[in-house]
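tokens incoming
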């Protein structure tokens, strides 16, 4: 029944034969959170978004699409096909954690496929599995999306993707492999201000006298002359990045065993 529904949804947009291997599908990108969108706008950098998928031959497809807008994607008529939505500043390495969707799980009532921030990790893993030759139509991708969303608290990028990818690359889906990464209690040095995560599901950091301890001297004297605060928090292992609400600075660090991981600070446009 699911595959039949897939064909029914595809046909009005494509006009293709019922038996054709591909069809056109309307895909809707998610909106950026208001604060993050405003900060990126203030940065003066040219950010852009694109929908990523794979065609029948496994080749990568890319369709330019603004947040909240719709794009048209040619997709094989098979369940389990994944799409990613990437948004960032080309050439800088600065990008928002991607959103994702899996066909037909992400279809709305109007027959469009909606990309969601929470489904980014599932889509990323499935695209990697496809690239490795896995037939994702044989996986229970609906359960995969549901289990990740339900088992991972907060941002779904807290998922231990390395653990789950081994299972998917073997052509299997085992729910007990869906686990959160290890959390670490750490101290971060950040310039004073509101720091918005480049993960739309993560929490904002407010570095100031009410939430942090003054730190001196600043570890980036050539970039920042103002107040710096030591912020105690708990973050999952891996890479994290933020943009200051005024759009002038980006900060990033990699969380691991170190109690005080170094923070990389970059001025927008430099």
């Amino acid at each position: 029944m699911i595959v039949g529904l897939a064909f029914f949804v595809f046909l009005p947009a494509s006009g293709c034969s019922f038996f054709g291997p591909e069809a056109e599908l309307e895909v809707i990108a998610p909106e950026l959170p208001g604060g993050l969108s405003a900060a990126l706008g203030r940065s003066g950098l040219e950010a852009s978004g694109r929908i990523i998928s794979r065609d029948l031959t496994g080749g990568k497809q890319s369709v330019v699409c603004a947040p909240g807008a719709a794009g048209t994607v040619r997709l094989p008529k098979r369940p389990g096909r994944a799409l990613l939505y990437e948004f960032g500043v080309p050439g800088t390495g600065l990008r928002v954690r991607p959103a994702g969707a899996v066909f037909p799980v992400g279809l709305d009532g109007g027959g469009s496929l909606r990309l969601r921030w929470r489904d980014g990790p599932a889509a990323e893993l499935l695209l990697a599995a496809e690239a490795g030759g896995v037939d994702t139509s044989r996986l229970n991708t609906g359960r995969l999306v549901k289990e990740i969303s339900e088992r991972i608290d907060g941002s779904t990028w807290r998922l231990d993707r390395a653990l789950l990818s081994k299972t998917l690359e073997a052509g299997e889906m085992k729910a007990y492999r869906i686990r959160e990464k290890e959390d670490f209690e750490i101290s971060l040095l950040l310039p004073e201000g509101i720091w918005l995560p480049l993960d739309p599901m993560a929490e904002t950091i407010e570095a100031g006298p009410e939430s942090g301890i003054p730190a001196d001297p600043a570890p980036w004297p050539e970039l920042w002359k103002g107040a710096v605060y030591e912020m105690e928090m708990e973050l999952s292992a891996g890479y994290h990045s933020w943009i200051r609400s005024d759009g002038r600075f980006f900060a990033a660090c990699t969380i691991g065993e170190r109690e005080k991981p170094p923070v990389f600070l970059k001025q927008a446009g430099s």
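note: The two ends are 53 Å apart (CA to CA).
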